[in-house]
User: What shape does this take?
Amino acid sequence: MTIEDKNMNVYHTKTLRLIGLRILSLVVLVSAVLASHGALAAVTCDANSTAMGGVCVPSGTSTGLPETSAGQVITNVMNWLLGMLGFIAIIMFVVAGFQYLTAGGDEKGTEAAKGNIKYAIIGVAVALLGYVVVYTIEQLVTASSSTTTY
Assistant: This one.
């Protein structure tokens, strides 16, 4: 290692320390300003909440959060993912169709387009199969012993 390299390393180390010191000073300054303006002072909560550590926490059973089950959240996420998959599949089919049309008889281009269409179909089939498997497991887990007539 040459003297110039050592000097450069020392320069970078000093620069990083200086940047760290400036960030720490900025955090301390902002905290002092917020404390002087009462932003970090005691919290006033409404009748349904109690103050814990400067934060209003709901008391009792009223949390203000939605009352959905974990199963419903999973179902919502699955439906969203299936919608996104449909959107992506449509884009893949359009791109592959454009590739097929612009191949101009080139065997390589048409084979690539056919491969893209095949992979888009396989992707949709695997995603739908995953949805069916999750839905079936959900129905088996949440099944009740009562008979339902439709």
